[in-house]
Amino acid sequence: MRTLLKNGNIINVFLDQIMESDILIEDDRIIGLGSYNEEDADEMEDITGKYVCPGFIDGHVHIESSMLSPEEFVRVCLPHGTTTVIADPHEIANVAGINGIGYMIEATEHVPMGVYFMVPSCVPATQFDESGAVLTSYEIQSFFHHPRILGLGEMMNYPGVIFKDEDVLSKIDITKKYGMITNGHAPMLSGHDLDRYIAAGIYDDHECSTIEEAREKMQKGQWIMIRQGTAARNLDALIDLFDEPYNRRCMLVTDDKHPADLLQHGHIDNIIRLAASKGKSVLAGIRMATLQAAQHFGLKEIGAIAPGYVANLLILDDLVNVQIRDVYYKGKLVVENGMTHPFQTKKVRGDFWKAVRNSFYLKALTAESFHIKPEEGDCRVIRVIPKQLLTKEEILPLNFIESNGIDVSKDILKIAVVERHMDSGHIGLGFIIGMGLREGAIASSVSHDSHNLIVAGCNEEDMALAGNCVREMGGGLAVVRNGQIISAMALPIGGLMGKKSAAEMARQNQEIREAVAEIGSAEGIDPFMNLAFVSLPVIPDLKLTTFGLVDVNKQELVPLFVK
Amino acid sequence: MRTLLKNGNIINVFLDQIMESDILIEDDRIIGLGSYNEEDADEMEDITGKYVCPGFIDGHVHIESSMLSPEEFVRVCLPHGTTTVIADPHEIANVAGINGIGYMIEATEHVPMGVYFMVPSCVPATQFDESGAVLTSYEIQSFFHHPRILGLGEMMNYPGVIFKDEDVLSKIDITKKYGMITNGHAPMLSGHDLDRYIAAGIYDDHECSTIEEAREKMQKGQWIMIRQGTAARNLDALIDLFDEPYNRRCMLVTDDKHPADLLQHGHIDNIIRLAASKGKSVLAGIRMATLQAAQHFGLKEIGAIAPGYVANLLILDDLVNVQIRDVYYKGKLVVENGMTHPFQTKKVRGDFWKAVRNSFYLKALTAESFHIKPEEGDCRVIRVIPKQLLTKEEILPLNFIESNGIDVSKDILKIAVVERHMDSGHIGLGFIIGMGLREGAIASSVSHDSHNLIVAGCNEEDMALAGNCVREMGGGLAVVRNGQIISAMALPIGGLMGKKSAAEMARQNQEIREAVAEIGSAEGIDPFMNLAFVSLPVIPDLKLTTFGLVDVNKQELVPLFVK
């Protein structure tokens, strides 16, 4: 089957040029450039006046953060020109281990997008994390023969790398032995510590938040992934990396993006558009998002329009605004006039599906589940800080006689992290200040990185109701007021992803955020977002896990009561 | 073992910058940049005011063309800053097959240079070639597990690629399956034929002789190797590839370089120096010769000065003139003040050594060996053309009654290609016009690509003597006059490489060329060089192989006598 795209303006990413040329496609490949006739092909499309560029590559994304099933994620991102993603299934792996990764691989087997994976390096994320699974270097290695696995996922445990933890280094070394790469994750690391981290064999980073940080990392050999997601938005700070020579060592990534954000603003196309609006070169943006990402990941047959390359192509009406009209994936038209054509997906096999679908193992909760037996002394309380994932520790006297320690008038709420993978009965209990809820409770199974059930509320009855609501959905978000569930969003795939369409998921997400606003939230606080990181004991200062409070700076469990 | 290079001006090839920085080396690796103290290392070298750049990489070289043993080649190239070569052992493979390649690998096992190999793709070069060995895709594949094999050597058989010869494509496809690359070789190919060639999976070329040719190949995805060797010198024509954005897709190579040229002018350093003398950027030249070559060949740990990279470093007194003072290979000082330190080499194992050392199997020649039984009609005579490897066919009446067809007064000499690998007795006989010899004979075992014994002379006795002289040396070059050997140069390793030092080989090479001049050579003709290509039936028009005359354009054997 031969398709001829006639009279295009082709973006040549090798030489940053726009060339007038036809493109002859045979099956999934580009086989010719230059001038061809209608007789040379079975089908011809006249694209006079239009631009053609290679399909975009997202070099680092957690599909789970979109809350969409992998298939739906593909459906949403395709019209934005993304034909390849390198996904890190870190979240689902913390819930369902190798079966979770297996699910992601299977679910994307037949989709019209090249979905590659990095094997998560840090499952569980820390010693205080009670995750649903563990990945040792043995399990990691078992994936390295799969054609869509490209290496080891972001190595967040940088102290482990710097201080040469044997287990951490063995994961990196095995990856190297397979000729693969290890993704970096080392926010703010610099100087000799950065040297030690890189020297272990980690040659990219997506956590740069200043241009100085990026420059140092580039000088030392790292590729920089310019990240623009829903929460972490580094484009403004890193905008000058779009200039030469920096743009030669960069690519574009989203990391984490919510469904409404994907629908409204787009994906990699949005980053190029934003940069263009600040006067930066669209051609450089396209090169970063195509050829360079492909080079970094060793994907030799994608990322450019040239003979022998896979025909992943975008037809653009307009270059400056990156207006994508049609998308070809492996030579087939998969997006036409901005609409994704329906596609068949693969039925996921039983072992994988069961592991992600039945990921909640937890007895029903009662108000008593959240009781704290009072002891002598004041309490350590977690203070959330507007617009930050950092927390502070406050030592406060609490009133256990009348209200089990809760004091809504002072914004002191109860918080719980309930182990939900194997019904161990472990529950971490504590108090949180600064959330702004005035009544009711909220609960969520999206709580990094172990994704246990996290619940915060103004009274224990509503907390139990919210928690049970999430439990009964097999994962999700819930908002409760006065014994009534006022909003709920199901995330039955691993407690992280929904089964509905992106539009429906975006609508539900909007609705539940409005419901939270009704029961109250403080200025600069996004209750579900802040809650999702209260259980991650790598961000200072005080966090809560299923084992109780963790002093992150000391990396040790600390008691609730201070005598 | 830790070495500290203190206060260098480091060439940063990621960002085309010169940075003031120390370099901390541990064993074979760079482990730190920035500022260190004497106590951080076991040894310290103050390099204040000096420049440090990554060791150079020659992306395409036939070591055999230097006429030096691999060990001696390393000894000569090291002080010129070459710490890595990607060698194509095409010549020795045509003589000794897998044992020849094995010899090259073994001989370079312990040398202080990273010597990588591409497996020759075209052994024998054509169907008319009676080479000493054959490499099928089975043999080729057998090398792909070796850590110093990077892919398939230059695919000269471009008609085979374009017309989808099954055998040719299977070699390329197997290479791809191993994640490796195939080197290109397609002089002047353009348009749809070039597309077909590239689409098979061939993404580099070192045969460009014009900037237009290079631009088309780059637009279509090929990396361009800018070649500057002894015979083929493309730098002048391609000098503008040193500019942006072209320099981003280029590397520097020598292909074929003679010993005197290496000694006098250098290696990759010479190319950068020449370009600088034409006003081009030294930093761009260094980047092409380091990081980019490494990227193309998938060598992730060399080509830059960064944490985790192998410590292959050059200390330069002067950047503009690329004056190399010291060379570090894998963290060890191997060249000091321009002098290569002595190094131990590996004793090559018996099977490999015998195959290359005893490569001559041929009974002694006599004057009768060169007799041509006269037939009716005129003869096809090969005309050599000054400064070209092309030949022309001339149909001439020859005098067989008095002089066996030879007529020195008309510059018509006898020529023979004698099969010398397995003493088959095959001998191709004919006549050559335009060489300019006035007496005696010359013989050589360097005759592309099969490296049979080629002999040309003014009488059959001297031809036999010259041929036997080469035979007795086990390969080499010889000049004979009036029954006397007036000069000889032994190339006992496969009939291609000598065992002497580079200085001695250069001296002998000079001496033998002077000896040829004594017996006569025409303007613009280098008798040994022209002779070396008279037996290669891929360059038009008329060539001679062990089977007889070949009409290259028709690709068929033709008789000597035309009735």
Separation, N- and C-terminal Cα atoms of chain A: 78 Å
Low-confidence stretches of chain A: none
Percentage of residues assigned to helices of chain A: 25-40%
Q: Which class best fits the helix and strand makeup of chain A?
A: alpha/beta
Shape of chain A: globular
Explain this structure:
The structure is a homodimer of 563-residue chains. Chain A is an alpha/beta fold. In chain A, 28% of the residues lie in helices and 28% in strands. Chain A is built from 16 helices and 29 strands. In chain A, strands 1, 2, 3, 4, 5, 14, 15, 16 and 17 form a nine-stranded mixed beta sheet that branches. In chain A, β26 (542-545) and β27 (548-551) form a beta hairpin. Chain A is globular. The model of chain A has no long low-confidence stretch (mean pLDDT 96).
What's the gist of this structure?
Chain A is of the alpha/beta class and 563 residues long. Chain A has 16 helices and 29 strands.
Blueprint (SSEs and pairs):
2 copies of one chain form a homodimer.
Chain A: E1 2-12, E2 17-26, E3 29-34, E4 43-46, E5 51-54, E6 56-61, H1 70-77, E7 82-87, H2 90-107, E8 114-119, H3 137-142, E9 149-155, H4 158-162, H5 166-177, E10 181-184, H6 191-199, E11 204-205, H7 211-219, E12 223-227, H8 235-238, E13 250-253, H9 259-265, H10 268-277, H11 282-296, E14 313-318, E15 323-329, E16 332-336, E17 339-340, H12 350-357, E18 378-384, E19 391-396, H13 400-403, E20 412-418, E21 427-433, E22 441-444, E23 453-457, H14 460-473, E24 476-481, E25 484-490, H15 502-519, H16 527-534, E26 542-545, E27 548-551, E28 556-558, E29 561-562
Parallel strand pairs in A: 1-4, 1-5, 6-7, 7-8, 8-9, 9-10, 11-12, 12-13, 18-21
Antiparallel strand pairs in A: 1-2, 2-3, 5-14, 14-15, 15-16, 16-17, 18-19, 18-29, 20-21, 20-23, 22-23, 22-24, 24-25, 26-27, 27-28
Helix pairs in contact in A: 2-12, 9-15, 10-11
